[in-house]
Amino acid sequence: MPQSDRAATQMPEPPPLHQPRPRQDVPFSQRRFVPRPVVDVHGRRRDVALAAPHPKLQQVAEWLTPAFYVDLGRPCNSACLYCAVPPHEDAQGFLPLAEVASIVAAGAQGQRCDKAILIGGEPTIYPQLNEVLDLLAEQGLSNHVLMTNGLRLGEPGVLGELRARGVATVHLSIDTLDPHTYDLLSRSTGKLAKQVQALQAILRSGDLNCYLYTAVTALNLATLPDLLRGVAKLAQAENVEPPPVILALIKPLGDALRHAEQLLVDPVPAAQRVAELVQLGDSLGIAVGHRNLAACLAPQLVDRNVDYYLDDYSIEVNSGSRLPFSHVEHWFHLPACQECGHRGICPGLYRGNTERFGADAYRPIGNDGLKLA
Ligand code: SF4
To answer: Are 67 and 168 within 8 A, CB to CB?
Structure first.
């Protein structure tokens, strides 16, 4: 990485040794599957509240909506240091195939979603992934989204099979193109090349939508300019447009909270870094969006806030009825937020961040970037 990028971020050098993959906390014999009572949904906003929505991010929102999540369980072939749902804490294992039908019924019939979002853990290691895709096809659903670390996508035939069975969009989690940083973040050794192969295979495929989802942590922040440059180069080599990149400030949950000292970034300087990356992305032809960054910290970037393009809520599996988004339990608003023009659309703050970095910087703004009613 160029020294100038590391100096610009003022981030500490990463520690020299990476941590080993943690052992399973819960022995296999003691795991018991408990179905989730709700299914999360990305609904499509009929009318995005932004004054000037970014066309590429609007397209990503169309790929992602209206869709319900099928969470295939925690097992994963990686062990990201920032994982909000760490696989080694898994007490349940994979989602039993028998549970899939009720999830699909709640999503497709109750709330009229036309596609599913397959998530884990890592969905490509789910032993009955083809059966899940066939079940979705039987319900007339197609153009699904696969949220994956990509480690299996470079294997011969894997992408083609997924495409043939209804996957249309790959949400590819790539956090860095620096091998050392990748090893630190993934608690593994030497697997970055597989992610790069996956991206190349997707770009080459010509018929898959793709966006990159990049966790922003203190360990990889300085490598992000090179990630953008590298993605632009890979796309150029395949003679295609580079995929959009969504920079997601990590959620202070699960392992990210456990390793907060190493990982969490103060949202205030992070907002400045994201603004620089947005600008770099523009110069490279990459649409850069962000998540988990409140509008008041970066009012000039509200058109890049992916949350503003989605209508998130949950569904009760038994009744099919709509509920508030299940993740709201992790967010909160400050009393002052009542005065903010973004109060109705801003997801709010993570307690783990404000406890660590304070809340003084979060101050009500007007309707910056929003369409006036
Ligand atoms: S609602 Fe609160 S956190 Fe969100 S942008 Fe406004 S002041 Fe910031």
So the answer is: no
Mean pLDDT by 10 residues, the chain (373 residues): 46 57 79 85 90 97 96 93 87 92 88 92 97 96 98 95 97 98 95 97 95 98 98 98 98 92 95 98 98 96 96 89 80 94 93 93 95 79
Q: Which helix H or strand E contains 148, and what residues bound it?
A: strand 144-148
Cα(124) to centroid of ligand 1, in Å? 37
Count of CB atoms situated within 10 Å of the CB of 226: 16
The best mutation among 50, 292, 296 to test binding of ligand 1, ranked by most ligand atoms within 8 Å of the C-beta, falls on 296
CATH number of 3-330: 3.20.20.70
Give the residue extent of every domain in the chain.
3-330
The response to whether residue 333 sits with its C-beta less than 6 Å from ligand 1 reads yes
Distance CA 308, CA 370 (A): 10
From the CA of 368, how far away is ligand 1's center (Å)? 11
Q: Give ∠ CA 129-131-136 in degrees, rounded to 5.
A: 95
CA of 340 to the centre of ligand 1 (A): 6
Question: Considering the entire predicted model, what is its pTM?
Answer: 0.92
* Ligand 1 pocket test, candidate residues 50, 328, 340, most atoms within 8 A of CB: 340
